[in-house]
User: Fold these one by one.
Assistant:
Number 1:
Amino acid sequence: MRSPTANTPLASGVVDQPWDETFEEVVRAALVEYPPDAPLEPGTPLPAHGVDSIAMVGLAMVLESSYGVTFPARALVPATFATAGALWDAVRTAN
Amino acid sequence: MAHPGSTRLLDDWFRDGLRRNPGGPALRVFDRVLTYAEVDRSATAWAAAITSAVGRPTAVGVVASKTPEAYIGFLAALYAGAAVVPLHPENPVRRNRSVLLAAGCQAVIVDPAGAARTAELVTGTAVAAVLAPSGPVDVPAGVAAPAVDADAAFTPPDRSADDLAYVLFTSGSTGRPKGVPITHRNISTFLEVSLPRYDAGTDDRFGQVHETTFDLALCDLFPAWASGACVCVLSSLQALDPVRWVREYGLTVWHSTPSLVRALQLRDALRPGSLAGLRHTGFSGEPLSVDTARYWRRAASGGVIDNLYGPTEASVAVTAHRWDPDGDEVGDVPVGRANDGTSLLVVDGAGNAGAEVGGLLVRGPQVFAGYLDPADDAGRFATRDGVRWYRTGDRVRVRPDGALVHLGREDDQVKVNGYRVEPGEVEVALREVAGVDAVALAVPGGTGHVLVAYLLGGDEPDHLAVARALADRLPAYMLPRHLWWWPEPPLSAHGKVDRTGLLAEAGRRLAPAVHPDREGSRS
């Protein structure tokens, strides 16, 4: 179980993401045809890259088990998954 | 003699629950639980605020999604003596504005999402008051933003069962949404015949999956409220994780489209017995396969499953079938027999009534009188032996035992996640925003139809710009999943665009194993 506050610089040298490698991997795995060399940024819109509501539910489950947290009910709305940054905020504030 | 139907008002059913269970929970939205008395008090205060600003309104828009405003606002509009016009705040503003105009709304109730673009929404409409119970709202000059006085005294005006209760808008093939006005008599007749199926009481908790812009939501709201039970609102994401929320909220009644279950089934997300708390499930909105019913029943092992069928024009559902899990049916679960008071007629291609397979006509006290715009009535009604029938456009087969089986549509209309979509409406919008010829098609897939569209001929369009402009006109459920440019489309022998060829090609493009190259797709 990882701490959601960790901020590990990525191997690629891109360091301006606020999140850790686990989050980066989990979110990238949920995107459809997202180029591996394109950066994932806080403003990256997830629904524009194939994250539909089914994928959002799956993402929530994977993030909950990766970080040992439970999203409160009111976080389980599409707005939480609108961007990578919004989702990371939800992970950080869940407990 | 024609069945007269119910003479009750839609809000009378809420008052039944209020009498039975005033201090009990009527509405749950996330962790917020409101009692019957609290919901009634708020609805009364909101109705008073609207009435003090505009007098008795004929129609009130409720721009809200899955928030207390969506539900209490629905009741408040009824209390004010108006027809409710539910609007999804995420729909394009210009579409919502055209609905407000068509329905003649004099007031709107908005939730925080609905409040975000209120000024743009009401400009140029008859709306003279905006009620925003959750906070301040910007309104244009000349439009009131009345404050809510929680203790306001207010008595709903006298109404008749033939007054409008709500107006819903569905996809129209001519390129604009069609308004479907439903009277208190229409919807109350549905509730009167449907309530016994639920056998619900004050301990029941209904999962509320559908948006209130979709009349299947009324199948949760009013049967729950009539019984003094609690309506537990589920966000679109909560609805896709029924195991968790049936358990956490203690849900006993579930109602959704079969495609939601199909999506869970494809991921095998439901363990046997994992929905054991459910004692009643209703499916509607699209065909229910026996396979999907079995999969759900394995999880909701102690409960019964009803399959409902009906167009919005006939007030939610006109048939129902209690599925027998031990039966030997294959294919689709029947939709059952007509509700009490409703008459059905199956007419074959030659116009002969009483056919085994044919188009379904319906009449009775649940059936609306006609579209908001009479122009939309063209071709939708049939008069036989002096009696007027509504043409559902659905093809059915009558089983030897009298139960109907839904076979599909007589026209191009499809269901996308339970929503009615006319590909023609998508096509009209696409031609307008792209400025080139376009074809929108519904491709059958594992969980239902997938909407795709082609832009034909001309120079390569700016896909992102077209997609954005389309999203500015159509609700999300009508947006094509893929938008492809085809400079030299195949033509039929008559020189027209070969739609069959385009459909076949779309099927190939959507099958990833056959066609991994999805270039030009926007998702």
Note: Chain B touches chain A at residues 30-31, 235-238, 240-241, 245, 248, 263, 267, 518, 523 (CB under 8 Å).
Number 2:
Amino acid sequence: MIQSLIIPILYLLSGVFFILGLKLLSHPKTAPRGNSLAGIGMFIAIIATLLNNQILSYELILSGIIIGGLIGVIAARRVEMTSMPQLVALFNGFGGGASLLVASAEFYRIQNNIQEFTFFAILLSIFIGGLTLTGSIVAFGKLQGIIRGSAIKFKGQNFINALLFLIIVIGGILAILGNFEFSSVVIVSICISLLLGYLGVIPIGGADMPVVISLLNSFSGLAAATTGFVLLNNSLIISGSLVGASGIILTNIMCKGMNRTIWNVLFTGLGTDDSSDKSKGKSGQNKIAKSYDPEDTVVIFENAKNIIVVPGYGMAVAQAQQIVSELEKVLESKGANVKYAIHPVAGRMPGHMNVLLAEANVSYDKLYDLDDINPEFEQADIAIVIGANDVVNPAARNDQSSPLYGMPILDVDKAQTVFILKRSMNPGFAGIENELFFNENSIMLFGDAKETISKLVSELKQS
Amino acid sequence: MSSDILFQLYIFILAIFVGFEVITKVPPTLHTPLMSGSNAISGITIVGAIIASGSKKITIESFFGDIDLTVILGFIAIIFATINVVGGFLVTNRMLRMFKK
């Protein structure tokens, strides 16, 4: 009764909670409730599993849950909002790693009496799980600054990746035909998939991270779903495919934000040495950008009515979100109207800027999407670009030879005056020169964004 | 057996469609919480990990005595999946509490 009826019904119930949870998670008002519902769904699924009569000992299970739970609580409490992309990457990796481990564990349990289909599902689960594990660790390393953030490439990279993938496919087929031992194919597949995750993410530059993280998110779900096929467990299949779908949706949004296909992002990363050389040779050199001190800009701010703030990854690096919010309040007290323009791929993960500004108590109805804010730049007196570069590069509109050409950008250059907060004249992550800096109406404010805005805020408060 | 597999393929395909339909229009504000929340759901692998580490079938004789590979792999998988589940839901909750009008 318990085994054949109650457990399946509990699993079904948990699936319903996950679907409702995800639905509520996609609206701002109901999102907290959605997250709690999904959590309850998970609790139900765990209880149902503990009722399974295959389980003979509970000590290991309990200690595993306690260890993992403690690590999870500490990580979730301690993390700075600016480090959120790293944490999400790491969590994706743990999900993928768990799927790899479960598929391998099941293989060792049933290896003497294994069905072809189950073997196929095990290989697939190992492949996706392993890829997700090491891919996420590399993404984490890049975001944390442990691994060089720019694209690391070498000749024949795609060829080697394809070859490695083929080895798994051929090994799997030969094992099913009876020419190879199952266990050696499983071990080789584990090694190759771990290697492929590393090789796959290492050539992708920092600016493309939003795509990579949402793709890994999708993979962590698909890995769980394939593990469901291994264990013949519907709960894993349902939840895994829900997550797979939501990850694909986000990946799509990110790719549209850059006007590139997923294949283009994965296999021909921006920021190769020759592309930056080309654009450097063409422009720059004898052009000079205007540079002001923060004190000199006060008059312009005093007279501005409509101000649009454009945050980018540089704001996260400088931890400037609090002071940006303060600037907003000072400007509003002087009668200005302040809005934020958020590019879909600003930052290092989907919604990165929104999270940071929310932390600094910026109301979310002041944040505008690309399509909603672009018509407003023409009426704006000031656009302040804080640590954003490629997403405001006019070359994406005009210069067919630019690697950015065709990417939807924020039209900051149409504002009366454009202030650009930047550390130095170095080009952005993609290594592409930005014409915007040399425009008539552009003014550079060099230095740490947090310090620059602090100076500006105190000057504005005094005047 | 094969009808079992077919049935599971049905569920897989239908669940993917449900996923696409349920999460049609996500405002950018919620991109990160949706990602970390759905990521916590992908920790459902914990179900498989519990079954693996709780069962005892095969042992390998080793220097340290009898080691059950399935149980050990399952145990590590429980730790990984629990980090994913607990961390994912908590951090999502923390972010959502910050969003205000």
Note: The two ends of chain A are 77 Å apart (CA to CA).
